[in-house]
Amino acid sequence: MDYDGDRNYRSGGTEMITFVGAECDTLGQFLTDNRGAATTLIFNGAKSYSTPLSKLDRKSIEQTYEMANVLTENRKLNLKRDFLDRQLQVARDQIARTTQEPAADDKD
Fold it and tell me: Which residues on adjacent β-strands are paired with residue 51?
């Protein structure tokens, strides 16, 4: 990713890059599928730079990836629950409108 000053910035000789999920899900999935495997990241740009990931870095990325997946699934399930709750309320309202109790003088 070229330096753009928006999603990446430089500070104290370090360049920081902000990624979105679709740009880093491959790495998260790879590390999750290959737990414990030695991994080296290679950054290609004007110059290539490679760095091995420590066990702690790998584990942190794996856990962050898994947490992001769980949060995404939780959000989807909450939306589905809200939809189903609304459907249930509509059904209850329809039952209440169509079910009438006998009048008090009809009981005799």
Answer: 41
Whole-number Å distance between alpha carbons of 39 and 14? 21
pLDDT of residue 104: 62
Query: Can you give the residue range of the structural domain that contains 45?
Result: 8-99
SS3 content of the chain, % helix, strand, coil (to 5): 55, 15, 30
**How do residues 48-95 score in pLDDT, each as one tens digit?**
989 999 999 999 999 999 999 999 999 999 999 999 999 999 999 999
Instruction: Specify the pLDDT at position 13.
Output: 81
The pTM is what? Answer: 0.64
Residue 15 backbone dihedrals phi, psi, to 5 degrees: -105, 125
Rg of the chain, C-alpha, whole Å: 27
The answer as to whether 3 is a domain residue is: no
